Structures are given as structure tokens and as C-alpha cells.
Prior knowledge:
The protein is an alpha+beta fold. The chain folds into two domains: 17-125, Rieske Iron-sulfur Protein; 140-326, Naphthalene 1,2-dioxygenase Alpha Subunit, Chain A, domain 1 (Alpha-Beta Complex), CATH 3.90.380. The protein has helices at residues 3-13, 160-167, 173-176, 269-299, 305-308, 316-344, and strands at 18-24, 34-38, 41-47, 53-57, 71-73, 76-78, 85-86, 92-94, 114-117, 120-125, 147-156, 192-196, 200-205, 215-221, 224-231, 243-253, 256-266. It has a seven-stranded antiparallel sheet with strand order 11-17-16-15-14-13-12, with helices on one face. The longest helix has 31 residues, at 269-299.
Amino acid sequence: MDKKSLIEERVNNGLLGQWYPVAKSVEIKADAPYGTRLLGDKIVLWRDGSGAIQCIEDFCPHRGAPLSYGEIHEGNIGCRYHGVIVDGEGVVQRVPAMPECALEGRKALKSFKVTEANDAVFVYVPSVDQPEPPELVLPKELVSDEWTGFLCTSVWETNYRYALDNLADPMHGCYLHSESFTLAYGSKQDLMKLDKTDDGFRIERVGQTGENFDWTEFELHPGVMFCFLDIPYPPAAGPGGFMRIVGFVSPIDARTCKVFFWRLRKVEGLARDSWRFLYRAKLEPNHWNVLEQDRVMLEGMPDDARKREMLYQHDLGVSRIRQMLTRAAKTQIEAELAESQVAAE
């Protein structure tokens, strides 16, 4: 495969050297493993005796059975097929069926660095050019006590690039979501402008602000990428003004991704408690309906849509996010090719 094809494949499957959210914190338990996939690979997570999350390949080194089907034994994970016990570093601890087996003490599986933040579990996927995880940089809204909200996640049967394109495209809001609770307003004609920021870029409508989903800002830091946007709220939706959405997208495989959206408002005191109650009691289904509209539309698009599409002025944000992914993939592939060349000499 030539260099150009390798770069395109890397972009399509997902970048390495990144922190990706993979689950809600409450989903990772000390009494049962949690299996999922990330960038096409099966991984398994669980909490050890101290409550720390462990993550390794979801593969028993004995015969390849899924460890996620197994059980937790004193902070380690045991395969349900033949009982082989592996720790969070991927080292075989015990082979119950054959004491003093030669497998014991061998590091047999890849392990992954994990961190928890704001109700989510992030896994770092190393790359040749960035084998050790950088500090996880989070959006300012997630590290501030001024904001409160809820994390929602959803699996979409579409390539993660379509989800990012969707977020970088504010103009779709007044069309796709035109019958939604908060997105039924504003003009259906406009131009877009793109501005560079210190950490990424901002794409927004020229003719209106605060009427609909009118802008998105992407931030890129070493090892992580996320975006945020605002959804205008009428007074009937309670205190706090607009709702801010903070979004991450994790590639599961080439045709599936998982989206993580924090729905946030800047409120305090009694207003904070009132809005949280109102959201859970009444507003949450409205926001799920909007998310479902995006999911259904993107899942209906063919895998090769990018080869046949005809972009125009509104797609400035779409073009920019694609350029950024391609540049990052190019850096990774060149580092891997250089390493291979050194190894061959």
C-alpha cells in the first residue's frame, strides 16, 4: 500500500496517539468486565480492588476467548472458558487448571492507559510518534464549577468522520432539526465564515447568531480533539439561557462510532437544581429526538459519499476538519515508515 493510501486508511479508521472516551464511568464496575471496541480493536475494562480502571485487549492469551465474558478475581480478570487470570498490565497471573504453567508471569496482552473525567472513561491509544499519553486536556466547561449538565452517549452505525462533519456544519440545524423544540427558528439562507483560534477553529453563520445552531468551535490539543456549540433556549426551558453542547466522537471501527455529548448550562444555586430537575423531568426527550435525527440521517448515507459529494461555501468547516485529520494522519504514517526503515537496516 502506498503512502497516500496508508494516510487515507488511518484517517478512515481513526487516529492513533489520542485519548478517546469509551464509556460512562458508572458502566465500569468492580464485579463484572465491560467489553467494547476502539479503532477496530476489542478491549475490556474493569475496576481493580482500589477502584482504579484497568484496560487490556479483550483476548484470552490461552485460546482467544473474550475476557469480557469472564469474571473479576481479586482485581484481575478471569477467562470464563478455562479460567486463565490476567492482570491490568496484560500479564498472566494464574492458570487454575494447571498450577505452575509456563504461561504464568508472561506479559501476553497490550494494556492501555485510562483516566476518568466528568462521568466518562477515556482510553489512550498510543502511536509511534506519541507512545506515552499526554495530559488529557478537557473543555473549560468540564473543569469549571460554573457549569452543570448531563453526559449522553449513543452508538451510530456510521464512520466517525461523518459525525465530525455533521458537527462542523451549523447550516444543517435549520433544515434537519426544523421541527425540534429549540431549533425551529432562524433563516434558511446564509453564508459561513471560518476563523482560526488559538487551539483550533470556529465555523459560524454570517447573518445570525443566537437563533439556531449557528456556530461550532473545535479545539485540538496534543492527544485530544473536541468541539462545543450553543443551542438557544426559550424562557420556557428554565433558567440559565442557552444550552452548551460539548462533543467528542470515538471511532469504534470503520463503520461505527460512539458520540459523547455533555449538555450543559451555566447556572448556580437554586436555579441550578431547578434546571437539573426540569431537564430530567421534561426536556431530555426533546434533546434525544434531535440526536436521533442526526443519527438516522448519517446512517442513511453511503460509505463512499465523500467520493461523490459536491461541496460548496457552507462546507468550510467540513473541509477544515478533514484537512486537520489528514495532516495528523500523515505525521503518524511518516513516523511509522521511518521506524520500519530503521528496523530494516
